[in-house]
Specification:
heterodimer; A: mainly beta; 7-stranded mixed beta sheet; 4-stranded antiparallel beta sheet; 0% helix; 48% strand; B: mainly beta
């Protein structure tokens, strides 16, 4: 069974830093593109960042570029999100998720399945 | 960026009703569209991908259709466990974007 377990969410002051982790199991982690998606309280879903299986390619939503860094350790089956210069608008539940399938011939199935249970990041003084 | 617009934002329906939710993309995304279901306090769950492919384990009362810019999620006979919020997502290009959500409520 595929499992994704996030951790690291906390209350942090504006301007502070936090690192989220996502422990993966039940699949060959290195073969899959991984992503972070967030959801502010009472709001909709927002894609944050994506990383390829070999860490060679990363993508970010504009609002976090230069502040957040996605990374992975395939030897530990773990995905990370380093978040710096945090703002109040970063307050959200952060979900770890994987692409439904592996990429093939340059085409990637950018559908998210499954999702972890989420970890709450609160940015407030 | 591709904007995804869902309608309605909420719908009240009864068990057994047919429910249709629409999603419109701001540009042609071919069939690069997914639908998710989210219940309160839970993570989203993939229902439909590639506009019309049913994810494994999802009941057949859920179906998706459309291509280009206009898409539809249909629940053929609403069940008690289907009361939730539904999101569409375009997978055509980065940044990946979601619709604003449609809340399906009990009438």
């Amino acid at each position: 069974e595929v499992q994704l377990l996030e951790s690291g969410g906390d209350l942090v002051q504006p301007g502070g830093s936090l690192r989220l982790s996502c422990a993966a199991s039940g699949f060959t982690f290195s073969n899959y593109v991984m992503s972070w998606v967030r959801q502010a309280p009472g709001k909709g879903l927002e894609w944050v960042s994506t990383i390829s299986g070999n860490s060679g390619t990363t993508y970010y939503t504009d609002s976090v570029k230069g502040r957040f860094t996605i990374s992975r350790d395939n030897s530990k089956n773990t995905l990370y999100l380093q978040m710096n210069s945090l703002r109040a608008e970063d307050t959200a539940v952060y979900y770890c998720t994987k692409y439904l399938g592996s990429c093939s011939g340059g085409s990637c199935p950018r559908w998210f399945d499954p999702w972890g249970q989420g970890t709450l990041v609160t940015v407030s003084s | 960026d591709i904007q995804m617009t869902q309608s309605p934002s909420s719908v009240s329906a009864s068990v057994g009703d047919r429910v249709t939710i629409t999603c419109r993309a701001s540009q042609d995304i071919s069939s690069w569209l997914a639908w998710y279901q989210q219940k309160p306090g839970k993570a989203p769950k993939l229902l439909i991908y590639a506009a019309s492919s049913l994810q494994s384990g999802v009941p057949s009362r859920f179906s998706g259709s459309g291509s280009g810019t206009d898409f539809t999620l249909t629940i053929s006979s609403l069940q008690p466990e289907d009361f939730a919020t539904y999101y569409c997502q375009q997978a055509n290009s980065f940044p990946l974007t979601f619709g604003g959500g449609t809340r399906v409520e009990i009438k």
